[in-house]
Design goal:
Helices cover 39% and strands 21% of the residues. The chain is an alpha+beta fold and 398 residues long. The strands form 4 sheets. The protein has a 5-stranded mixed sheet, covered by helices on one side. Strands 1-9-10-8 form a 4-stranded mixed sheet.
Length: 398
């Protein structure tokens, strides 16, 4: 029979697994802190939207506080401790995980994944081979550096043919990200990017790779359903389910029922419910604690949509909506923008969740917004009039 877990304990376990319950460093944040953060979450999602700050920089700030963002870049593109690949969407991950994604690269070569771009590669093989040869001879190169315009005049999925070819080669492991140039991916042949000892490491079977990734998933989630575990590294549920059953049979996952959750779940065998959860953090829209929206609703009773992709007249809370975590609960959300020209953090709207008192939220939220503004090099905070929390927050900011 499965163990029973309260909803509050599930929240606490999840926050502990993601590193939110650890105190922020008191002094200067260095590479050791960043390594500990990345080693805990194992996958840092990237996104091109820069209305506030690039998505992959934000999760470390939420846990550690203000840190030099160049440390993360240094880990990835100078020290080669991290690599880019499709982990949970486009992601930065510890380079030690690279062999676990070889099976995914092989699937891509067979055309089992991302069918449209696989078709492009089949239909334009000579061109794709020419792009690879050019990178090998001239690299590192961005798509905009390629000498030829492409095999066809049309664009594929919003990309020019050169970009499509490079993304196919990246997807299949022939190219890797060497660096970023104003966030544009700069590619090089993989053997010049990934450390030699990592490339020489034997690649596990797809089944074993999934097992190991799913173990990392439960370590990062604390407690999770089959779908939650599969989603962490974007493993298909039918592929994940038998591996999860094996891990449970071996005692590496503990079956559990969580109060209010409709589906059975699993507990990290090393998970311990913290005695006290007193978190105060603004949370990135692509943070692992909230990126699976159904799980966010189960954990926090928080219906979350970032609304970037929602037509403006249908938006409820704003364009770039950031949840605010207080205690063990998501108590509010704010629509934020960094106005770098005016050197101000703009709070277009601020909403307390139903049943939450704005007066009890405004002070802690103002403190986190000040910390965020300082980290981004912004001088002031401007709070707009929208939302039931706006008036109290404006007073607290003053």
């Amino acid at each position: 029979m499965s163990a029973e877990l309260s909803a509050a304990d599930a929240r606490a376990l999840s926050l502990r697994a993601q590193g939110f319950t650890e105190p922020r460093p008191a002094g200067r944040i260095d590479l050791r802190h960043l390594r500990r953060f990345v080693g805990r979450v194992n996958v840092v999602q990237m996104d091109s939207v820069n209305v506030l700050v690039r998505a992959h920089y934000f999760p470390a700030f939420s846990r550690l506080g203000p840190y030099p963002v160049e440390l993360l870049d240094r880990m990835a593109y100078e020290r080669r401790e991290l690599f880019e690949y499709w982990g949970h969407e486009a992601s930065l991950m510890p380079v030690s995980l690279y062999p676990l994604f070889r099976a995914r690269m092989e699937r891509a070569k067979r055309g089992d994944l991302w069918g449209g771009i696989a078709r492009f590669a089949r239909e334009n093989k000579k061109y794709v081979d020419a792009v690879y040869s050019e990178v090998r001879e001239r690299g590192p190169l961005a798509a905009s550096d390629l000498s030829g315009r492409g095999a066809r005049g049309e664009k594929w999925w919003g990309w020019a043919p050169g970009k499509s070819a490079m993304e196919w080669l990246f997807w299949t492991g022939a190219l890797s990200t060497s660096s970023r140039r104003n966030f544009e991916r700069v590619y090089d042949v993989t053997e010049r990017v990934i450390p030699k000892d990592v490339l020489r490491a034997p690649a596990p079977s797809e089944e074993e790779s999934h097992r190991r990734l799913l173990e990392m998933s439960i370590a990062g989630l604390g407690v999770a359903t089959v779908k939650d575990l599969a989603d962490y590294f974007r493993i298909k549920v039918p592929d994940a389910r038998p591996r999860i059953a094996e891990l449970a049979e071996e005692g590496r996952l503990i079956p559990v029922r969580v109060q209010g959750w409709p589906n059975p779940a699993y507990l990290d065998r090393a998970g311990k419910v913290p005695r006290r959860v007193d978190v105060r953090a603004l949370v990135a829209p692509f943070d692992p604690i909230v990126w699976e929206r159904a799980r966010t609703h189960r954990l926090f009773d928080f219906h979350y949509r970032i609304e970037i992709y929602t037509p403006s007249h249908k938006r409820v809370h704003g364009y770039y909506v950031v949840p605010f975590l207080l205690g063990d609960t998501l108590v509010a959300r704010v629509d934020l923008k960094a106005d770098r020209k005016a050197e101000a953090l703009l709070v277009h709207a601020a909403f307390a969740e139903p049943g939450r008192q704005p007066a009890s939220i405004a002070g802690p939220l103002a403190e986190e917004l000040r910390r965020l503004a300082a980290w981004l090099g912004l001088e002031g905070i401007r709070v707009g009039a929208r939302g039931n929390l706006a008036r109290a927050l404006r007073a607290a900011v003053r």
